[in-house]
Structures are given as C-alpha cells and as structure tokens.
Amino acid sequence: MTVRVRRTTPRWHTHELRLGTDEVTKRYHDTQAEPAEREWRALVLLQRHAPGLAPRPLRRTPGRHPDLVMSRLPGEPLRGTPVAGPALVALADSVARLLDAVPPAAAAALPERRAGRAEATAQIRQWYARRTPAAREPGVAAVLAEGMRWLERPWPAVAEEAGLEPVLGQGDGNLANFLWDGERVRVVDFEESGRSDRAFELAEITEHVGSWVDPGTAFDAEEFLGLVPLDAGERVRLLECRRLIALVWLLMLTRDDPARPRNPRGTVRAQAARLDALLGQVC
Fold it and tell me: Which InterPro entries does the record cross-reference, listed alphabetically (predicted)?
C-alpha cells in the first residue's frame, strides 16, 4: 500500500511524499536539481558514517521533478509534542551524532548549506528594505531596528568561521524532521544540507519557529543545548547564530499573508520578544 502525502517546507521548496510499507519516495517540485542532489549526497554520507541515523538511500531518478527513494524510518515527528525527558535526551544524542558523523575533510568538501550566514544576512537586508505593515508595528519595528543595528556590528573574533571544524549540516531545524520511536530519534529532510558548523546547526534547531509555536510543543532550548558539548568559542558563536536565525524568522513571519495565516495569532510579537531576549543576552 502506498500513501501520498503532500508536504510543504517552511522555506523555499515544496515536495510530495509517497509512503510505502518500507520505502518513501520524495518528489521534488523545485525544477532545479540542487535540493535532490543535496539530499542524496547527505544520505549517502550518513549511510557510510552513521548508519541508522537517517533514511538509507535506495535509488533516484533524474528529470524536471526528480524522485529520490529512501528507506522508511519508524517513529513520529517531535513537532507538536512535549519534547522532554528521554525524548529530549535522545534528540540531543542524535544531533550530536549527526554533527560528529562525517569526517571533517569530507564535510569541508561539501557545498555550504542553504541559508548559511552570508545567505541569511543578504535575505535579512532584502526583506528589511521591503518591510510589510506587520514589520512596521511599533513593538515589532523597534526590535527589528535593534536587530539590524546588531547585524551591522562585527561578530566577536572567537565566533567567526575561521578555524571551525566543518560538519555536515542538516539545514532545517524543524522538529518535524526528527522522528521519535520511544527509544531513538532519527533525522529526515536533507534537501538544504551542506557544509556547516556545530553552533550554527544547534541554533537552527532552537530558533526554528517549529520549536515553540505549535500547541502541544514543549521544548526547552536551554536544556537541550546543555546536553550537547560545546567549547567556549562555540558558545559565543552559538549566541550570534541564534540571533541571526531569530532575525530571519521575525522578518519571514512578518511576510505571512494575513488573509491566509500559517501561524497562530500573536506569533510575530512572540518572535519579536524572543529576538529581543537574545539581543540582550550575554554569553
């Protein structure tokens, strides 16, 4: 039996899933081959270096809308659930394993993940220059202005990329991409994956709107981060990365269509408060 599921990701792509008993077929609606190539490459690397953590790549078909067939994993998405106790520990363990899995030399050879620092910064500037009415509301506008002032300041030297060990970054921290079976967490959705670093990938998870916006989600970001070992420099970089991603999300959320909102009422103001807290935080 095959079930067809259409899924929309929160950024730029849409794809369709066909769920079989043992296999999942992912059809990419992006007419470019890049998302499929990124996903296939990541799954091949993880099958080699961390088997069982992600779907096993089975086959792919090229074309205008490429298909990728992978093994079907057990478990349910963590998004919309209370991510605490054993589930939180398992999530931290799997994320740490993912970040340690691919040898640095192999990770260094990868193209940079989508929406890395440079791409995110350019997107922020573009969106800020074309602010929507939601971005001009007094409380939101003030936080955005402070965020833009922060964006133009140099990062601390210890937070810069130079000397960081490269990792395979999954590229999409949506908790829906982490499947919990009661014992283990496995990871799916690598179409934005590529070369990254530990701090950026952890910030991607903690600052993704899916980590807090849904009723039923209970995810303590600070507790989660305390379960993943980081050195002092990575902790400084982590705060800067969290600020950057939170600023991206605030501007993205202000662009939501008010006639067809995808998030609960008050989400923009709640995101502004989250960014404001991060801007005031001292590492």
Answer: Aminoglycoside_PTrfase (IPR002575), Kinase-like_dom_sf (IPR011009)
Residue ranges of alpha helices (H) inside the chain are 34-49, 86-101, 104-108, 117-129, 138-151, 198-206, 221-226, 232-254, 267-279
pTM of the model: 0.93
**Cβ atoms < 10 Å from Cβ of 37:** 16
- 226-276 pLDDT, tens digit per residue, is 999 999 999 999 999 999 999 999 999 999 998 898 999 999 999 999 999
pLDDT in tens, 75-128: 999 999 999 999 999 999 999 999 999 999 999 999 999 999 999 999 999 999
What's the total number of domains in the chain? 2
What domain range is 98 assigned to? 76-279
Amino acid symbol at 54: A
Are 117 and 59 in the same domain?
A: no
Residue whose tokens read 């099958």: 47
Q: Is-contact 246 151, C-beta < 8 A?
A: no
- Verify that 52 and 169 share a domain, yes or no: no
